[in-house]
Amino acid sequence: MAMIKFLYRREYFPTKDALDSPLEFLASVYEVADKYLVHQLKKDSLEHFRSILKENWDADEFLRVIPFVYQSSPQTDRGLRDLMVHAACARTEELTKSEGYQKLDTVEFTRDVISRIGGYHHAKVCLSCGLFFEKDAQADTCHQCSIELYFIDVHKA
Known about the structure:
Elements: H1 2-9, H2 22-35, H3 39-55, H4 59-72, H5 79-90, H6 92-96, H7 99-103, H8 107-117, E1 122-126, E2 132-134, E3 149-153
Antiparallel strand pairs: 1-2, 1-3
Helix pairs in contact: 2-3, 2-4, 3-5, 5-8
C-alpha cells in the first residue's frame, strides 16, 4: 500500500498513531522499494529511517527491528544495515542497559558492529553519517554533517 501511495502522491508515511513500529514500517517500505526497483521510495524510506533514529530514538524498538532489517535485506545492501550499526555504535551503553539487549540474537548484526568498531579503542562517532573521530579530537560536531558526536569505548580482547 505504501508503494502505491508513493507512486500516485509521492507520500507514503501514515500517521504516527497508526504505527506500532515506525522503524519496522520503514524497513518494510525499503524492502518493497528495493524489490520493485522504486529507487526514490527506497531513498526516501532510508532518509526517514535515519531521521527517526536521530530524532525519536527508542532503544527497545531499535532492538526489536534489528532481526527484521537483517532478514529482509541482502548482505550486499548496506543502506539500513549501516544505519543500524552506526546507531548501535553511538548508543552502546544505552542499548546494553535495555531489556531487549539480552534477547538479541542476530549474528550478522553483531559481526557488522564489531567490524565497524574494530579499529578503534576509544572514539567519537557521528550518528548521522557514521564517521569516526579519535576520542581526543577537538571537534564536538561532525565536520561533514554538523551533527553532535557521541563517545564510544571499545575494548579489544
